[in-house]
Amino acid sequence: MAVNIKQNNQKVELVVNELNVRSVDRTRKDIATWRQAHITAESVYNPNRSRLYDLYADVLLDGHLSGIIAKRIDAILNKPLHFEKDGAKVTQMEDLINSSVFRDILFSIMQTQLWGISGLEFIPGASLTTKEIPRKHIKPNLGIIAFEQMGNDGIPYAPLENVWIMGNPDDLGILLKCAPYALYKKGGLADWSEYIEIFGQPVRVIKYDAYDEQTKVELKRILDESGSSLSIMIPRQADFEIKDGKQTNGDGRLQLQFVKALNDEMSVIILGNTETSTSNEYSGYAQAKIHMEEQHEITLSDLAYVTNTLNQPKFLQILSSYGYPVAGGRFSFVKNLDLQYLKERMEIDMQVAKMVPVNEAYWYNTYGIPMPG
Fold first, then answer.
1. Claim: this prediction has a pTM higher than 0.90
2. Percent of the chain, pLDDT > 70?
């Protein structure tokens, strides 16, 4: 049953309380699951993302993947943000920007790039309060929030003033690219675990005379009572040899290299590089510096994405309904100046300025200098 909240003598029904939310499918996932879920999500006639999003929830349990995602998101959440009008900060917005609910909104915006879509329902009241709309119920191709995750009947969200759906309707998110690597990694770790279980402790081989049954029984009893290590009993007359792969993979390095390669692929997808999250024996300062610059470019792109999303008319209208003074203003991140970068930039700019005229505003904007007046 929907919960009714009164505002301005009107009853508002919460959409999220009308949905029949199902648990995440935690059954075994593999590459075939990913491929079929991808096909279903892109179906022209009846697209559905439920299986794909269940797969995303499963691969996000990967420690490396969740770590690099947190690193990318934290780079945005920890950047100073303000609301400005005519170049001046609006101090009445500071409490909102520094609140936990606003941080959650920023988090949802960043999550949109991972999943493709996100949805928030804003609960009418005196203070800004939100509820996340389950992504499996958002049907961007139909423009509805479905009652059932596999169904096509629901509530059109475009006319709802307190519901904000973010993302490109055709976007399936960055996790689509990460999922197969996370699945391969899970299988690789399982193989590695099995290798350690088998070859991580010595193999006990006992030989007995083929016709001496009494000795065979006694030796079996001894093996059973002397631990759980791998043991083998064979007749002395038999020819026996263990092919354990130690000639080519005696220390499990094959599995280690496989897992590292998969981690590197996910790092490149999320962060644009590998050196800012892990290192290897061939890395050096120059390579790490280049990788840091690559990640810096991704952070700049994320800042622009978040700013554009926050300044959407829909969100500003929602904030206005709570009484916030947003008319004529916009959200903006404080420019974070890299002194080393600016020093190198200055050397180039001074040479360019000797050859061609440079607009005065360029110097103020590039180097974060307040304009006089």
1. no
2. 80
